[in-house]
Amino acid sequence: MRIELERTAYKKLLQWKKNAGHSTLEVSGARQVGKTYLVNRFADKEYKQKVYINLLELSGELFLDHYEKLWNEMTQGERFENPVYELIRRYDPSFIDSPDTVVIIDEIQDCPSAVGALKYFCDEAPEYHVACAGSLLGVRLSRETSAFPVGKVEFMEMHPMSFSEFLKAEGAANYDEYLGGLDQIETVPDFFHIRLVEHLRRYFACGGMPEALGRWVETGDIVQVDKVLSDLLDSYERDFAKHGGRAQFAKLSQIWNSIPTQLARENKKFVWGAVREGARAREYEDALEWLADAGLIMAVRLNAAGGVPLSAYDDLKAFKVYCLDVGLLRRMARLDASAFAISDALFSEFKGSFAENYVLQALLSQLDAAPRYWTNEKPKHEVDFLIQVGNEIVPVEVKSGEVVHSKSLKYYADKHAETTSLRVRYSLKNLKLDDGVLNIPLYLADRSAPLIKKALDCAHLDV
Fold first, then answer.
1. Which of 3, 169, 322, 389 has its CA 20 to 30 A from that of 305?
2. What is the edge-to-edge ordering of all strands in the sheet holding 153-157?
3. Which residue has the higher pLDDT, 260 or 88?
4. pLDDT at 340
């Protein structure tokens, strides 16, 4: 029996239906993050009628055939009272005209010419709600075509399941409710703190890919989770061959498999030589961009911290690369399932890279601007992430345990004293704001934004 996993994105789908003006919804994200499952579950629960069209199957070709014929008939003077109804009826003769209908077009990235049909759903039949699902790469490419209906589509990007969603899946929704109810920066009681760290350790092992997390909840067997994660990694390699093309396949695979090596280095700056001996940027840049566009990697650029917006001070030649999911990273690194039983191993392996990867995953869904990082050569210092919160630049340090001393974070604050009113540190220590440093327990990373804003307000009041 498949476990029904609760997704935060479901609330966004409900809001989309409520605001039905009505724009088409395009749900994108890396492969296997749960797009199709969530949209279909939403349709089955919230609508009287669902029309499901998968453009990867033969029926997708049939849909396009109907669409093209209908288009030709309309351009040749044929008139239809409701062209969209006519289109759906040709695809599915059993379709009944009903306002409480949602049309799901899945795998839309595999058929860019279908994107042009979206305009007609919006213009001719706004009473039908249309939700598309597709891989991040294909969706981004489709936006660049002349047929893309600008202004007619609302976007929602899905990510691997968060720690908050993991808690609910493990039956610990009460812990998640407690964390969500924190409206002050105050110590989390030891009873909760200790158990939340235990849950977090399991999340680091399983990760947030829905199939892997579901297998853990169903069986409690990390070996079975490893099998799921290995299968997912194999499926991505097949995608490299299918979507990247023969010429790019080797480069995509080499970059992808170098990620654990890159993150195991003391200086995590991406090095082309770790991909292949003698490799040069000009040979591999396109492949790296492909992986980023597909949502499989997260690139964090070096930044000079010269002001806002952060993007104006990027060094485009230096960056760090992380994996889309901490569980996949563990499996890529071939960290054995036995490490699951060791309390702190998953936090400290690879010089804290698991913790950094996890924090980055959490921050990406909460910030308008992607995180950067900062270094100083002489003396040597590095700040893991720089984030922009409103017009504030906040330096962020990630520690994988309870040893939290950081010369780099203090050095940065001293060097940028006029523009730094708050420093943020993630660790296994408790929630605390002390002398301009906000310590956020790793298990609260999903709720960083409100905590950081509250700490900034306190900092401004103290000025």
1. 322
2. 49-54, 101-106, 128-135, 24-29, 153-157
3. 260
4. 55
SS3 assignment, position 248: helix
Summarised one tens digit per residue, pLDDT across range 409-424 is 999 999 999 889 999 9
Least confident of 184-198, 326-340, 446-460: 326-340
Tokens (6 digits) for 57 = 């199957």
Q: Do the bridges between strand 423-427 and strand 392-398 make them parallel or antiparallel, or are there none, so unpaired? A: parallel
Which residues contact residue 7 at a Cβ distance below 8 angstroms, ignoring those fewer than 6 apart?
34, 38, 161, 165
Q: Where are the alpha helices (DSSP H) in 155-280?
A: 163-169, 173-180, 190-206, 210-219, 222-244, 246-264
Neighbours of 106 (CB within 10 A): 22
- CA of 138: how far to CAs of 14, 291, 380, in Å? 25, 12, 41
Q: What is the pLDDT of residue 1?
A: 46
- Indicate the DSSP class of residue 340: G
Q: 296 in helix, strand or coil?
A: coil
Distance CA 117, CA 135 (A): 18
Spell out the residues 6+ positions from residue 316 whose beta carbon is closer than 8 angstroms to its own: 301
410, burial (CB in 10 Å: exposed 0-12, middle 13-18, buried 19+):
middle
Q: Which two tokens stand for residue 425?
A: 């540190």
Q: How far apart are CA 385 and CA 389, in angstroms?
A: 13
Measure the N-to-C terminal CA separation of the chain; round to a whole number of Å.
57
Express each pLDDT in 270-304 by its tens digit. Answer: 999 999 999 999 999 999 999 998 899 999 999 99
- Residue 39 in contact with residue 156, Cβ under 8 Å? no
Look up residue 376 and give its amino acid.
Answer: N
> Residue 463's pLDDT is what?
44
| Alpha-carbon gap, residue 83 to 287, rounded angstroms | 41
CA distance 35 to 52: 14
- Number of Cβ within 10 Å of residue 150's Cβ equals 7
User: Which ranges in 389-447 belong to alpha helices (H)?
Assistant: 407-415
Report which listed range, 136-150, 205-219, 323-337, is most confident: 205-219
Strands 101-106 and 128-135 come out as parallel
Query: Measured between alpha carbons, how far is 385 from 165 in angstroms, rounded to an integer?
Result: 24
d(CA 291, CA 252): 7
SS3 317: strand
Contact in structure between 351 and 362 (CB atoms under 8 Å): no
Q: What is the pTM of this model?
A: 0.90
